[in-house]
């Protein structure tokens, strides 16, 4: 089995002028896939929705049924009968339904640029890379099933664009080979995505604890391509170091669409953008102790205060010295050391207790 390659660690990528890495909020990719339902108008509506929700990028898939498979009807070319979404369907028919016509790419990309959102795609064969280069995409995404297509990975990497590789189903050796294939071109702008190739995916199979393992093993940033329902797994991934989250999106699950069953609706996508940023902001540093934001709170910790006016010579008792807020007085645990001692002077109620008073 291949082992991870020894290459200088890459901590972040530059995708179309946006830094993607641990020092920036998670980069959110809205995957359109086939949820346009064969309508360019709906595809453009999804772009507008993604931009309004705050996603950083909209992503397509660039293939035709003929570039990704062939038109035959044999058992190998059908999904399993028990598949939750596409049981027994022929691959060719499914890809005919789901593909995004290549002539739609330019208007989709043009609208994205107009709205200030990045747009790129997953190529599935060399003709797709050539086509996408003509559209000046800022990055390439390699789908999980294509991680074993090393010539395709090298071709995409040779463009010098950032390369995002999904790792669903892949072994350590297969991931290592894919990273090496990309790096062999001199391209160090490589990122891996943790992914579970199941539609929809069970959160229990997300294995988010593998994210830091993958980052350390391959020396590249790691994100999450998430097919679970909702945003819980995606938000949680940020705590494990995910710097990018890709989720399928749709205008409405009720309206159907080839991937709509596990796709986010507009409000959910907006929540994903918002909550992953909150999760990133909450990471902080690997330290324990008071934060700068808690400075005011420190003033109102409990401490020992004189709570009744006393005269010189009066003994300290539980009635005239108590643990209250604010701070400034002796620590509450010091009461046993001052109890029954006598005040050295008159003390006004509301004075912090100190050693020089007894």
Automatic annotation (TrEMBL):
Keywords: Transferase. Its EC number is 2.5.1.97. It is an enzyme of class 2 (transferase). This is Pseudaminic acid synthase. It comes from Terrabacter terrigena. It comes from the Bacteria. PANTHER family: N-ACETYLNEURAMINATE SYNTHASE, PSEUDAMINIC ACID SYNTHASE. InterPro entries: AFP_Neu5c_C_sf (IPR036732), Aldolase_TIM (IPR013785), PseI-like (IPR051690), PseI/NeuA/B-like_N (IPR013132), Pseudaminic_synth_PseI (IPR020030), SAF (IPR013974), SAF_AFP_Neu5Ac (IPR006190), SAF_PseI/NeuA/NeuB (IPR057736). Gene3D superfamilies: Aldolase class I, Antifreeze-like/N-acetylneuraminic acid synthase C-terminal domain.
């Amino acid at each position: 089995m291949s082992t991870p390659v020894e290459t200088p660690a890459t901590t972040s990528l530059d995708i179309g002028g946006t830094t993607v890495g641990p020092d920036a909020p998670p980069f959110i990719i809205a995957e359109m896939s086939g949820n346009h339902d064969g309508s360019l108008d709906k595809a453009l509506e999804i772009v507008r929705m993604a931009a309004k929700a705050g996603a950083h990028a909209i992503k397509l898939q660039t293939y035709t049924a003929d570039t990704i498979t062939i038109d035959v009807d044999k058992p190998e070319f059908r999904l399993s009968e028990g598949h939750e979404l596409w049981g027994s369907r022929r691959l060719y028919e499914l890809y005919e339904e789901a593909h995004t016509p290549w002539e739609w790419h330019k208007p989709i990309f043009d609208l994205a640029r107009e709205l200030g959102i990045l747009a790129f795609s997953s190529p599935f064969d060399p003709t797709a890379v050539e086509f996408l280069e003509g559209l000046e995409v800022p990055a390439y995404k390699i789908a999980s099933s294509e991680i074993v297509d090393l010539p395709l990975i090298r071709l995409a990497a040779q463009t010098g664009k950032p390369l995002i590789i999904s790792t669903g189903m892949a072994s350590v050796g297969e991931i290592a080979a894919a990273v090496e294939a990309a790096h062999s071109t001199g391209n160090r702008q490589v990122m891996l995505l943790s992914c579970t190739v199941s539609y929809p995916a069970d959160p229990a199979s997300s294995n988010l604890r593998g994210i830091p393992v993958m980052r350390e093993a391959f020396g590249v940033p790691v994100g999450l391509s998430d097919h679970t329902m909702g945003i819980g797994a995606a938000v949680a991934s940020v705590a494990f170091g995910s710097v990018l989250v890709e989720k399928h999106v749709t205008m409405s699950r009720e309206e159907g669409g080839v991937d709509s069953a596990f796709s986010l609706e507009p409000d959910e996508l907006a929540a994903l953008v918002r909550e992953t940023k909150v999760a990133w902001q909450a990471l902080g540093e690997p330290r324990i102790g008071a934060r700068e934001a808690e400075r005011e709170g420190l003033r109102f910790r409990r401490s020992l205060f004189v709570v009744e006016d006393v005269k010189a010579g009066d003994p300290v008792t539980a009635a005239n010295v108590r643990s209250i807020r604010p701070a400034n007085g002796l620590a509450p645990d010091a009461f046993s050391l001052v109890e029954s001692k006598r005040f050295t002077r008159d003390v006004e109620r509301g004075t912090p207790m100190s050693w020089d008073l007894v």
